[in-house]
Structure formats: C-alpha cells, structure tokens
Amino acid sequence: MSKRVLLADDDQLLASLLNFRLEKGGYAVHHSANGKEVKEYLKNNIPDIIVSDIMMPYFSGIELIDYVRNELKSKTPIIIISSAGNEQNVLTAFELGANDFITKPVSPTELLVRIGREISK
Amino acid sequence: MLTPLRQIKISLITAPEFNLDYLWWLTILFLVLSIVYFVGVFIIRNRITSNNSRTKEKKVEFSPMINEFLFYEDSNTKEEKMNYLNLKIQIRESIKNKFDRHVLTEVLLDLRKDLSGQSQTVLIDLYKDLGLHHDAYEKLGSSKWQIVSSGILELTTMEVNEAYGLVLKFINHRQSTIRKQAEIAVVNLKEEGIKYFLDNTKYKIAEWQQLKLLDVLRHKPNYTPPQFGLWLTSTNTQVVLFSLRLIKYYSQNDAEQSITTLLKHKKRDIQAEAIECIKIFHFVNALPTLKLVYPKASRDIKIAILDAIGEIGSTADVPFLENLKSTEKHFNIKSKVFSTLNKINPESVLPTKNISNAAFYDVEINVDSQETVSELHESQEELLTNIATAKSSLNTENKETVIEETFEVVSRVEKAEVDKVEETRTKEIHQGTISNEVEFVQEEPKEAEMTDEIDSSLLLHIKNDVAITKNSVDVENIEKVEHLDKVKEDFTFNFLPFVVEVTSIEEQTPSFIQEDFEPLFELEGEFIANEQEVPTVIGLEQSLTDEIDEIDWSSLDKVNVEKKEVAIEASDSDEPIISFENGEVTFSASFMPQAELETMVILENISELGNSLELDLLHEIIEENSSELIKERANELIQKFSYKTPLPNQLFDKENDLSESVFTDIYHLADLETKLILLNEIKDVGDAKEIYLIESIIESESKKLAKVAIEALNEIKSRVVLTTEELRPIANDPSIFDVNFKLESSESPKIRLASTDNGSTLFDQLCSMSHSLYNKING
Q1: Which DSSP string corresponds to B534-599?
Q2: For tag attachment on chain B, is the N or C end more exposed, with fewer CB atoms within 10 Å?
Q3: C-beta separation of B168 from B141 below 8 A
Q4: Does residue B275 contact residue B304 with C-beta atoms inside 8 Å?
C-alpha cells in the first residue's frame, strides 16, 4: 500500500505539478487548496506525511503545524514549502514542530527525496 | 411693494431665460449616458471574468500536459511514450491559437518562478521548443513601452540567449523602464553583456539598478568578471561609480593609479568610493593625494579621508593630523582627527572633556589635612586642661605624683595619598609630647608611619622626662617591663606600653587600665597577618629597652616605697588579665564583670541583628550602666542606627554627581541641530546647574551656538535671581523653623577604638572573644 501524502497548496499549477511527480514517485496524494479543506481532511484522515505551503487561505501552514501537533497530538511528519524563506518563518516552523523546510523555487525531485527520508525515519 | 423715492432699481444680475422643453431632453440624455456606462462596465467585467475563467480552464488543461513533458523519462513504458507523443501533437495544435499560446506562455513563466533544478531546465527547453519566444520577439517591435518591457522580461526569464542582439538596442532607450529591463537582460543573457553595458550606456544608473545588476552578476554560475578598472576612465560618471563598486566587490586591486586619481574627482560619491577602495586595498601610495584633497573636501569626505589615514597611515602622518587638530572647527571632524591620531599612535590624545584639573584634588587634600590638624589641636587642648586639673589635685594631696606615659605606635603601610596627612599628624603628636611634661594619651591609635628618627626622638624624650621628675622607680616594675619586652620579641607587639609607676596607683580607674591594654589584643589578632612588620617592631622594642638600661638608676631617690604592683588587673577580680607562662600568653575571660559582659553580649547582638527600633533600649543601657566601654559601644550603635539618607540639598551638593547638568552628556554627543534644540530646552527649563555647561559652550563652540547659549544663560540667570528673591521672604519667616524633629549629630566620637583591616573594631574583637570564652566556660 502506497504512503499517503497530504499536499496543501493554493497554487494550482505547482500543486498539480507536485501532485503528478509524487504520484509518479509512488505516493497517494490528496490535494487541498486551502486551510479549511486541510482541516476537514485531517478530522477524518491522518496521512503519512503532510506537505504544506505557508501562505494559504483561511489557515496558514504555521497554524497547520500548530493544529497537528497541539490539537491532534499527531507526530505526522510535516514538510513546509514557502517562497518566504526568511529566518523567522523557518524558526517558527521548526519551533512548532515542522520536520523540514523547503524554500521556493523547489525541485520536485528533491522534494521526493525529502519526503522519502521523513517517512522512513 | 413701495420703494423709497430716492432708490434707483438697477438689475445687475438677471437669470437667463430657459426653455423648459430642453429639461426633458437633458434628463433623457443623462439617463442614456448612465445606462451606457453601466452596460459598458457590465460587458467589460463579464469579458474579464470570462477571460479569466477561460484562462484558468486552459491552465488546468495545459497543466497535465506540461507535467508530462517536464517529467518525461526515456525509461518510460511504451504506453507512456505514446501518450507523450500524443500530448506533443495536441499541444502544438493548441498553440496555433493565439489565446492558447498566450496562456501556455503564462503557465510556463509561472512555473519558472516556482521550479528549480532539472525541471527548470526542461521547462525552458520546452518554451523554446514550442517556439513561444517568437511571440516575445514580436513584442519587442511594439510601440507600447509596457509590451516591449514584458517582451524583454520574458526573454530574460526564459534565458533566450539568441535575443541578446535584439535587446542591445534598448540599452539607451529613452523610456527608463525599457532601458532598465534591457540593461538587466543584456547583463543576464551573456557574460560579455556587462562590458557592452558599461561601454555604451549613456544614462544614469540608479542605485537600485546597480544593486540589481550586481545581484545578476553574483548569481551567474562560473562567472569570471572583467577588469572593471578599464571603465574608470569612462565619461559617464555613473559608470565610473558602478565600476568602483564592482572593483571593491570583486577585490580588483590593479587600478591603484586610477583610483588615486579619482580622489580628485568633482563628484563626492566617486571620491567616497575611491577612498573606500584605497582603504580596503591598503594603497599607501595614495596617502599624499588623500592629504592633498583634504582641505577642499566636504565634511563627509574629510571624515572618510581621516578614516582611511587611520587605516593605512603611519606615524609619519601624525604632524598632518596634529595640524588638523588645531585648525579643524567642526565637532565631528575634530573627533575623527582625535580618533585617527589615537589609531595611529595609541593614547596620544587623552580625554579632556569634563576632566577636573589636579588643583581640584589638591584643594581637597589640604582641606582634609587642615581639618585633621584642627581636630588634633582641640584634643591637645583638652589634654592640657586635664593635665592642669591633675596637677592641682596632686599638689593638694601632697607629694604624690603619677607619671605615666603611654605611647602607642602602630606601624602600617598606608596609601600614598594619605602619607602627607599622616606625617602632619605625627608631627603634631610629637610637638605635643615635647611641650608637655606629663601627658595622657587617650586618643585613638594613630595610623601613622613612624620613621626611625621620630622614634628615637620620642625615646630620648622619655628618658629626659624620667630623669627630670626624680621620682623613685619601682625596680621590680621595671623588671616586669623588661620581661614584657622579651615576650614581645616573641609575639610581635606593634605598640609600646611603658609604665613608670611611683605612687598612687589606686587613683587609676579600672577602665583606664583596660584601655592601656587594649592594643595587646589588637596586636595579638594581627600577629599572623602582619608578619612583615616584625623586624621594625622588634627593633623599636629593643631600642626602648636599651634606653631604659641607660637610665642612671643611682641618681633616683631611694624613697621607701611600698611594693605596689603595676595594676594590670580588673577592679573586681584578683586574677590578671594576661599571664605569661612558659613563653605563652594566656588571657583570662574574667577581665570584665559578669553583668557588664552580659550587657556587651546584648550590645553585640543588637549590632548584628538590630535596627533603629533598638534606639530606646540603647539609651536605657547608657543610663543604667556606668561602664565607659558599654556607654561607648552603645553610643556607636545609636549613631549607626540613627543614620538617615542624605537630604536633597546634600544630594545636589557641588561634590555630588547630581549637581552636574543633565544636558551635559547628551549635548556632547549631539550634532549641531540637536545642540540648538537642547540649548532652547535649557533656556526654557534650565536652572543654576546648567550655567557651567552654558559657559563652557560659550567659550568653546561656534558663534551660532554661542549666541543661543548666551541667550539661554541670560534667561536662566534672570530666572535664578527671581527665584532667590521669591525665596527671601520665606527664609526670613521664623515660623518655618518650627520643625518637630531633632537632627542627629553625625560627628563621630573623638575617642575610638582601633579598627582592624577587615573593618571590625578592636572592641568587636574583644567582645566576640569574651563571648566565645563565656560560652566555653558555661559549656
């Protein structure tokens, strides 16, 4: 059974591209375009890994980490993707419990490797 | 209506005649126009919305195709390969449509921003493969600047190197957006682009543009920069400036002569950049030019030059800086001159601002010594009075004379500043000794450093006194003194109790005897700590013993004197305080009455744990006890607990830091404008404390500041005078002195016990020792 990846990104083009690459890499990907959808999905499903953008409508990536770690008490690996790769964002993400941080522009192949590494931990 | 007879009715303004039929036509016209407007907005909005939705749909449509292209691998299965080929045909058909081509270009440009690595390379290849760059070429021919600019941006983003030649012509375009876009494109597309740009650009290169160009160069992989020194001769000053910055960034130090020459450039920016380069590359040969351009340079450039001299200069440049020290008037530049001097020649310029001169401290020392001398005079006068009283009493009781001399010499190494004062004290004591036949010394032990000369003179004086008095001396007592001296050689005493008793020992009070022996304990306590003092003290003791040996005993009257022991005993106890057995000194715990000892213990406890609430108890103790020791200790504690925080007028005394103006520090750090603001503030709110600061400003600052300072000074002075006049009537009113509190005397008692190095008094030690012995005895 393939590993389930929750891909949370409001950028349709990039999400579609990453979705394609991850599925090609053997993962079962669920795409959510905004924070609300992510929250709804997480109420009923716990994926093997979450790949999320920081800036999303309704619910930011940072809030998502907080929700997963503190409310769901889940240890699901979380990889954050953001074009705002400033120090403060990175530190906040890691402080709240993110497992990895990738700055845009992102290499889909690299993301695939990082996901594999986090799942195998 | 009736009008007055003399009023002439003239209609200056008359309302135009208006045909009411037109009103309806106008209403209809405005209605039609508003309908057209709203319909127009509706149509345009719908078109944009539909266009966006179409674009979105197309993007969704193109997205999987692009994904397939981007992640296509040769190792894919046949089906995948077939699918890939089909998609390629499909997409080529699609881009025949202008709108589709536009959307596809948009998608690729968007993805270009989000992707890196291999995917990015594939994406760019796909863009070129589909021939979308030809659309960009067409945009370059547009008459609209925004379309041309977007075309250049597209070609730059998609790294279409072939477009380099087409973009070159826009380098000197009169439209700044196109020009700037072209500059970045030229530098980006080819390595030699920067050369072309620097050679050919005619327009100004904005600071932001320079940063962007530098950023483009920085991110170029395997980039080998040209020698930017070649463009230092450019006629475009902006090119020279940008070249200097590039030289600095890429650390190209092969243009020393050119950079040195640029120090004489008319543009300040170029001068500043050249100075920066000289400083970084350590061009020592540029020092003469730096000095040459200095006099006519602006303030900023002067500071930059001084900074460079400080960095690369040597002691040979000190005369130049010394000259500037006296000629420069501006605060910032002068400060920089000082710092540069100190950088080249450390500690050559010392702080001068707010430093008190040496005379200020000399005055303090003199005052202190004078106070000490006057105190000594007072004590001496008291002693003389006591002596006179004693003499008269002795005369009335007939033929009973008590001669007792006690010299206490404590040798200590004191600080150099106190030496003068101590010497003065010593001299005063010595003079007092010579002038009096009989002297009771009950003062606190003087912390004096006695020289051998002073010691010998004192000893001679003792000898003479003893000879003159012609009284019988108890030989046994002298023997005891000698015995004591021998013991002291072993135990190192730094004082000299010398008792020559004749008669009437009964007159000595117990407390007096105790005081005579107090230094013994002190010395015993210091015995281990002050081993280095041993030779001096022993020498002193020995010399004294020798002096005693030299006394002509035969000349003394052989009066039948009853054997009376030297009263080294407490009044209520028969046991000696100190006994010497087998070369060991033992102290008796019962040298004080039991009741007094207990009171002393209470006092010590109060000292450690008490506060001002114990004042009443201490007063009671003084009233109830007759012992001088207890009274003295109680008084000390009263003084200790009565301490009050200083009054505001004491805080603002001249010797206190608070007396200085609060504006002083801020003023000295401020620039001209801030100084003016501060002076105005001082003028408004300042008082007498600010006068010293303002006077120093008037003396040292520029005319402009001095003028404002003078105004402020006058204002403050008038205000101070007013305040004084207002206060005068109040001061004359005696009712304000009806204060229901009593001021505590801060004057310390003249007679004090010796203080040890650790701050505790001898009395403290005595009491603590007695306390411990008391506890020991009681188990």
Answers
A1: HHHHHHHHHHHHHHHHTS-GGGS------------B-TT-SSBSEEEETTEEEE-GGGS-HHHHHH
A2: N
A3: no
A4: yes
A14/B contact by beta carbon, under 8 A: yes
- Give the closest of A20, A24, A104 to B114, CB-based: A104
CB atoms within 10 A of CB B589: 17
Q: For residue B400, with 0-12 CB atoms within 10 Å meaning exposed, 13-18 middle and 19 or more buried, which class applies?
A: middle
Which of B53, B67, B124 to substitute to test the interface with A, most A CBs within 10 Å? B67
Residue of chain A with shortest Cα separation from B108: A13
Please give the pLDDT value at position B614. 81
A-chain CB neighbours of B113 within 8 Å are 104-105
CATH number reported for the structural domain that contains residue A50 in this entry: 3.40.50.2300
Token pair listed for A61: 């990536």
The total number of residues shown for chain A amounts to 121
Residues with Cβ < 8 Å from B257, sequence gap 6 or more?
none
- DSSP reduced 3-state for A79: strand
CB B231 within 8 A of CB B253: no
Question: How many domains, in total, are found in chain A?
Answer: 1
d(CA B594, CA B602) in angstroms, rounded, equals: 12
A 74-103: CB under 8 A from B: 83
Distance from CA of A75 to the nearest CA of B (A): 28
Q: How is residue B424 written in tokens? A: 């003065």
Q: Tens of pLDDT along B328-375?
A: 888 899 999 999 999 998 888 888 778 887 777 765 555 555 555 556
| Angle at alpha carbon of residue A56, lines to A50 and A59, rounded to 5° | 80
Which residues does chain A have within 8 Å of residue B107's beta carbon, measured at their own beta carbons? 13
Choose from B119, B121, B157 for mutation: most chain A CBs within 10 A.
B119
Q: What is the pLDDT of residues B539-578, one digit of tens each?
A: 444 444 444 444 444 444 444 444 444 444 444 444 444 4
Give the range of the structural domain holding residue A55, as residue numbers without chain letter.
Answer: 4-119
Report CA-CA distances (Å) from B518 to B25, B515, B575, B591, B752.
Answer: 127, 5, 17, 12, 12
Rounded CA-CA distance B113/A58 in Å is 24
